[in-house]
Every structure is written in structure tokens, then in C-alpha cells.
Amino acid sequence: MGTIRVYYTSVTGSRQVKQKQAEVTRILDINKTKYELIDVSISEQLLQEMRAKAGNPNAIPPQIFNGDDYCGVRKKI
Question: PANTHER family, alphabetically (predicted)?
């Protein structure tokens, strides 16, 4: 199993994005899963990296990766 990385944003006006991000981190915390948070709001490069890895030029946070494997928002954690 690789490192779990959660791409998220600390700056959003979307309630839905905030709720999904909170849900993802809550599930990982409940399961005592170690993960790394990557804030795409601090760098356009990080946002583009997340989108490239997800294979979707319009992907929005949160996006989850297990090592190099794309997990989407909630599956395959």
C-alpha cells in the first residue's frame, strides 16, 4: 500500500466541496489511516498536478490517491 494523499483546498466558497473534504478526512481518521493533505489553493502547479493524475482537466478537490493509484473521492481507500 502506498502513501494516501488527499488533494484538498483550504479556500473554497462551495459548501459541497467543504462537506466532501470533511467527510473524506473523517473517514480516514476514524479508520486510523495515515494520509498526507495537499492544499491545491497554494499553487496552481499543485492543482494542475492533481488534475493530471486524476486524468480530468476539470477535477475539483477532494481527490484521493493511494501511491500512484487514483482513488477518486471515496472508493479504493
Answer: SH3 DOMAIN-BINDING GLUTAMIC ACID-RICH-LIKE PROTEIN (PTHR12232), SH3 DOMAIN-BINDING GLUTAMIC ACID-RICH-LIKE PROTEIN 3 (PTHR12232:SF6)
Residues belonging to the chain: 77
pTM score, whole prediction: 0.90
Name the CATH superfamily for 1-7+26-77.
Answer: Glutaredoxin (3.40.30.10)
Strands 69-72 and 4-8: unpaired
* pLDDT confidence of residue 1: 61
Sign of CA dihedral 21, 23, 28, 59: negative
Domain limits of the chain? 1-7+26-77
- CA dihedral of residues 31, 3, 72, 76 (deg, nearest 10): -50
Report the C-alpha gap between 67 and 46 in whole angstroms: 16
